[in-house]
Amino acid sequence: MTTLPGPTLGVVGAGQLGRMLAEAAAPLGVEVAVSDPTEDAPAAPVAREQLVGGFDDRETFRRLAERVDVLTFEIELVDPELLQAVSEETNTPVHPNPETLSLIEDKLVQKRRMEAAGVPVPPFRAVEKAADVYEAAEELGYPLMLKARMGGYDGRGNVAIEDASDVEPALEQVAGPAMVEGFVDYERELAIMGVKGDGEIDTFPVTETIHREEILRETVAPARTDEGTIERAEGIAHDVLAEMSGRGVYGIELFEGSDGDILLNEIAPRPHNSGHWTIEGCVTSQFEQHVRAVLGWPLGSTERRCPTVSANILGDVGRQKATLYNVDRALEADGCHLHYYGKDEVYELRKMGHLTRTGADGADPTELLEATRAVRDELTFDDAAE
Amino acid sequence: MTTLPGPTLGVVGAGQLGRMLAEAAAPLGVEVAVSDPTEDAPAAPVAREQLVGGFDDRETFRRLAERVDVLTFEIELVDPELLQAVSEETNTPVHPNPETLSLIEDKLVQKRRMEAAGVPVPPFRAVEKAADVYEAAEELGYPLMLKARMGGYDGRGNVAIEDASDVEPALEQVAGPAMVEGFVDYERELAIMGVKGDGEIDTFPVTETIHREEILRETVAPARTDEGTIERAEGIAHDVLAEMSGRGVYGIELFEGSDGDILLNEIAPRPHNSGHWTIEGCVTSQFEQHVRAVLGWPLGSTERRCPTVSANILGDVGRQKATLYNVDRALEADGCHLHYYGKDEVYELRKMGHLTRTGADGADPTELLEATRAVRDELTFDDAAE
Description:
2 copies of one chain form a homodimer.
Chain A: E1 9-12, H1 16-25, E2 32-36, E3 49-52, H2 58-67, E4 70-73, H3 80-90, H4 98-105, H5 107-116, E5 124-127, H6 130-140, E6 144-148, E7 158-161, H7 167-174, E8 178-182, E9 186-196, E10 201-203, E11 207-212, E12 215-221, H8 227-243, E13 248-257, E14 262-268, H9 278-281, H10 286-295, E15 308-314, E16 320-321, H11 328-332, E17 336-340, E18 345-346, E19 351-358, H12 365-376
Parallel strand pairs in A: 1-2, 1-4, 2-3
Antiparallel strand pairs in A: 5-8, 6-7, 6-8, 9-10, 9-11, 9-13, 11-12, 12-15, 13-14, 15-19, 16-18, 17-19
Helix pairs in contact in A: 1-10, 2-3, 3-4
Organism (chains A, B): Halapricum hydrolyticum
GO molecular function, one term (chains A, B): 5-(carboxyamino)imidazole ribonucleotide synthase activity
InterPro entries (chains A, B): ATP-grasp, ATP-grasp_carboxylate-amine, ATP_grasp_subdomain_1, PreATP-grasp_dom_sf, PurK, PurK_C, PurT/PurK_preATP-grasp, Rudment_hybrid_motif
């Protein structure tokens, strides 16, 4: 039986995801402490406390665990074995299960597990050296995508290989355990935020995701695809969730092939950029849902409230102290919600914030997307705009 | 031209209003510091910092002012002259204008000013001694409501006088400058959250408020009254706002007479309990709107998103450490949003949290109200429920 005040929650990682988790936990009466290697990270001002320490630092994990009732994480760079060990030592449960993190953080392990579970994935091969890539290319053909098995996100660690001459430079760039994937001729990208609670499984509505340079730019809900595709995507999301052993929210990225087939792209064991729109767009946000799930509380409704678009605010200048200009129109635009992450420094393509724009029932998603982009595209960190 | 990160905001008072202000400021990239006489007040865990000090403590105001770019307050107990003086000394603007606070905090001054401005108010008289009350009763008749001119809220400082025998005990209970109001035969109570920005004035949708023992229990939006009444209420809210000189959100409480006439009850120069439903129920919440207004930013849309009811979670036991039982159903109920204020101690009728429940477009407000009450009424601080 749930009582309040709720358990206190420790979040390893204090970037924007930690910040939005803390924002969502507060109304629930759940106090949040965070840890991050960067002092005064984005979550710090809204959390009760930030500890400073690395994602593989036992002492930081220990201090955080001793401070809170339940642990979670908002970044895959966390060392799962260390987190598990500290969880056991301090008798502080951690969700999702670090085992799940181990399964997900190595993209090759993730793909193999998903393939074994019958989840459709793009063709892939483990590669160590150039010869392995040439061999893969014979079977899968060029172009190939070379992916670092560990530590890649926002397209970092992914290098396209157009032909044989790209192989050696690509391997040098990735510099570590890697895999290649065959080219996927996709129509669009979709994402589903899934959630595993205490015996409950649910999914948020299918979201269309728009990437450029492998970085998410916008999301559109409802996704602009047909009902059959949406049902197939949901089915696959449920198959993926069935393989996950820990409570929490999962970001499930999918390709919709030109034939309508769905392929799994990647899984993140945490709230995900493609689910930020749920803050205003759904009855329960992915962040509140993650808090509920990791605490073992009943899950909230994942229902969509209205057509909703999100647009990332990315760094558009080189590394410097961050000041965002032309904010007025974003504040004035109808149904536009600002989320600024409070990062001190900006650099090219750094995720600095996002806009969410809600539309009336039945609003055209494409028009909503264009209207949102128009506002977002006026925002700049370039001080020429001053 | 607005840039981000925004100015930092200092809030005098760190109760639930300060807490929800801090929750609303975070996504906007606005950092909040708060001050309150009670250590670790409700806003402390979500604000950057809490200073500890009284609402008439110059040194606390000074330290807060030096810490932030703009000051505001969330409680009328603040000493307006002191706040004004510190604002000038430290060159830190304060909104709303402390002059407005001076006008509002003395209920007699407030009523006189509003009457002079042509705003309809219940008949009232200043009273100092029993003879004044008897004299007022001759003109206005019994029953009368005796009200402390200063410091009353949630019905504290209000004492009903049914007949002449109640006069002396009532005056003893109020013990200070007072006024009496004639009995208002009202059909229902309404409230409007108004906002004054930098040259902009706007109102949130008219809300029905349901009190018992003079404490707000539930709000219903849309108010269950006719269009003409709503228009009259909005007109009066605009008249009230025209008299206010400072930027910010104002809670305007109204009586709807059985003849459909509207009378002003009270004004609060801050976000108000009757506007909590706007967090989920409107495009912009009253808290985000207050942040925007005091910073001089463009105001957000006050549009209602859907039928929305809120229900206060009040203390139902004597003073003790607070544990709220039976929370599961509130977490499970469709469209139900929990707001727990994190107060350490509970006592009878203390405001400990609230539920907001959103309904589908066209949902019947009465059914929504009943469904919300049913969930709220299961919540208890009584450990017999354990």
